[in-house]
Amino acid sequence: MAETTGRVVLVTGANRGIGRAIAERFVAQGDRVATIYRSGDLPDGVFGVHGDMTSTEQVDEAFSRIEAELGPVEVLVANAGITKDQLLMRMSDDEFESVLDVNLGGTFRCVRRASKGMIKARFGRIVMISSVIGLYGGPGQANYAASKAGLVGLARSITREIGARGITANVVAPGFIETAMTAALPEDTQKKYKASIPAARFAQPEEVAAAVAFLASNESGYISGAVVPVDGGLGMGH
């Protein structure tokens, strides 16, 4: 069994928001952390490789560079994602397909590549970052919701296929998170959103990172195919 710390952890999209907080958490634990990202700066201690989640060739090349630098990936946190919100009747094929290709297809490409080393090592932790919207739905977010809901089926299929090899695959579904985006919302809008959340507040990115860190730990070895909401009770698991 892999050590709890000092592992090779890949967090996609670690340049900002939730992904950044997750990467910082693993660095603080003493893990060797890498990311595949498009742009921006990275937290200290994170080895970064530029790559496009929609390109199998770029994903595979990024993994090869990370393996050469740090070693085989033992923990994969599939966090990278995009949004292109639009009302259903106005949503173009490209707006639908591009979101699915990054959020769901990109996760698939990373999991497929990471699974090779995990199967060989007979150990692996796969954590996919979904959203309460994937379970709850959201107006103007048919593409995003579909992509995030698809992660649940992906994680459960992986669990049934390679769960006997010491590999777990789980989903974390964050709700409203305290970010620059939510901070920019009008005060009345923030109050309206918070009124719908039993916890009556937005989450800190570090609270999502804590759930991810647990699912990546040795202690979570008998948890697989699960969806863990970090939403203050907003979705109640739906």
Task: Report on the architecture of this protein.
This is Beta-ketoacyl-ACP reductase. It holds the Pfam family adh_short_C2. Residues 7-180 form the Ketoreductase domain. By secondary structure, the chain is α/β, with parallel strands linked by helices. The protein has one domain: 3-Layer(aba) Sandwich (Rossmann fold), CATH 3.40.50.720. It is built from 8 helices and 7 strands, in the order βαββαβαβααβαααβ. It has helices spanning 17-29, 56-69, 93-121, 132-136, 142-162, 180-183, 187-195, 205-215, and strands at 8-11, 32-37, 46-50, 75-78, 124-129, 167-174, 227-230. α1 (17-29) crosses α8, α2 (56-69) runs parallel beside α3 (93-121) and α3 (93-121) packs parallel to α5 (142-162).
